[in-house]
Amino acid sequence: MLASVVRLNPDGVEKPGNHLVFSKKDQIEDKEFSAEYIMPLLDAATSWRDKAFWALVAGAGLRMSEAAQITWDAVLTEQRKVFIYDPEGHRYADQLPEEYAPRFKGRKYSGTYIIPQLRDVFFEALEQYVRREYRPTGNHNLVFQDIRTGQNGRPFMLVSDKNMGSAFKRACRRAGVPRLPNGEEYTLHSLRHFYGVFMLNYIPVEGGYGLKLTEVQRLMGHEKASTTAKYAREDKLILQSKLELFDQFVLNGGLKETDLRTMLAKRHQEAAKRLLSGITGETGH
């Protein structure tokens, strides 16, 4: 009888299955790089250049192209700041602090916010990169170079995405980074996803944790908040905590609102510890 109704498709009755067909693009995957493997990944880099580059991409949520095109005048080592060329004003280049505006002579640059732990790694690796691998050249003023033999310090941005990605995946394997739920390996772009999730969920703010989506949008340089939402989503740990609390609410006959805050705070602290766990210690390259 049910089959007959479905075949007839009477008014007001939709055929079952219409909402259960997903394309590969529609499937939700955990695309962000796992926080607990950030430091092992950086320690597995085989060059100081890669360690600095990956720490900057993850720490500031940059696009690979943005990180590869950073010039030396946009890196302030004493202030430990990095600026990004922002001609479209997506990161509010028009609000550049006055103290930095003269440095760029009217060009539209915006400051980045680098997660402090990764900021330390970036500047330490950058110093070693300059000492051991960087080759001064009059051809360009870009920070990152192709350091392979015979390349004479050509811009790193000219290295193919395939080669950049291969080095990253090899480091992931050395660091024991697990694959994505769909069986694929993480890509360099997953570091940018990590930044979005981390900033939306784990940055301590007044009254809790996590920036607003529009604030993360500004930091990541997206034109639309809907784009940011693809990166910055609520961490599954937070969702799991809410569901666990509801279970306790039903079973125990009601809990206080402070219980949720306590549980969420505990989850936030655990995630922060994972990020901090590999900070100390220097590895050879």
UniProtKB/TrEMBL annotation:
Protein name according to UniProt: Phage integrase family protein
InterPro entries attached to this UniProt entry: DNA_brk_join_enz, Integrase-like_cat_sf, Integrase_catalytic, Tyrosine_recombinase_XerCD
Listed PROSITE patterns: TYR_RECOMBINASE
Entry-linked CDD domains: DNA_BRE_C
GO molecular function, one term: DNA binding
Keywords assigned: Chromosome partition, DNA integration, DNA recombination
Domain Tyr recombinase residues, every copy: 28-244
Keyword Transmembrane appears in the UniProt entry: no
GO biological process assignments: chromosome segregation; DNA integration; DNA recombination
Superkingdom field: Bacteria
